[in-house]
Amino acid sequence: MVRDELARARPDFGFLMEESGTVEGRDKRSRWIIDPLDGTTNFLHGLPHWAISIALEREGEIVAGVVYEPTHDEMFWAEKGQGAFLNHQRLRVSARRNLPDALVATGIPFKGHGDFQGFMAQLAAVMPEVSGIRRLGSAALDLAYTAAGRFDAYWETDLNPWDVAAGVLLVAEAGGFVTEIGGGRNPAAGQSVLAANPHLHLPLGTLLRNAMKPKAKPAPAASTPAASTPTAAGGSAG
């Protein structure tokens, strides 16, 4: 239904969707990036925390995005250079400056996919440093809530463009910083995303990156040469 409506409005645009992959359009510059149901597991279990995510990419750049949460009728939307909004209210990221005061969202690698051990290392590094961590099950809403200041920061790995494209623009237009965890500038590609207010982005990113560094192996203990047994000198009596 979402794709049909967008195709009717902009028949030349292409699509990138979870269900159907890439669909080329006549306009090679523009495509919609869509997740019609982000938070599928929540939806299937009757948890009212899921969303529809739609982003418009033009010449490789996200220029508009919408994350709609139907159960509370919350429409998060942004246009590049024009700010981010929740329904008709302007959004700003939180102003908290210190990690010990921060509420941080994340996602757990799904059904054994991704680097679970790496995630556990990151979680172990972040948990003692922040006020709390939440895992709610929708990357699009985690980013929207970060844009709205409900979360102070969010990180996750092993995502897809349709999970994050709209939300990345929301956070940026609400005054936040959004990068890949390693510092790369293409979080909308979905490999990893770190979103936070300007005060917390660097310290949280440092924690996450340090957690993924290989641990130095302890140097082997120096071996002690075995003590030699002295040989008694003897001679024949003359």
From TrEMBL:
Compositional bias of kind Low complexity: 218-238
Classification via SUPFAM superfamilies: Carbohydrate phosphatase (SSF56655)
Catalysed reactions, as listed in the record: a myo-inositol phosphate + H2O = myo-inositol + phosphate
Region (Disordered): 213-238
CDD domains given in the database record: IMPase (cd01639)
Entry's Gene Ontology BP terms: inositol metabolic process; phosphatidylinositol phosphate biosynthetic process; signal transduction
Enzyme Commission number, as recorded: 3.1.3.25
Protein name: Inositol-1-monophosphatase
Organism: Rhodospirillum centenum (strain ATCC 51521 / SW)
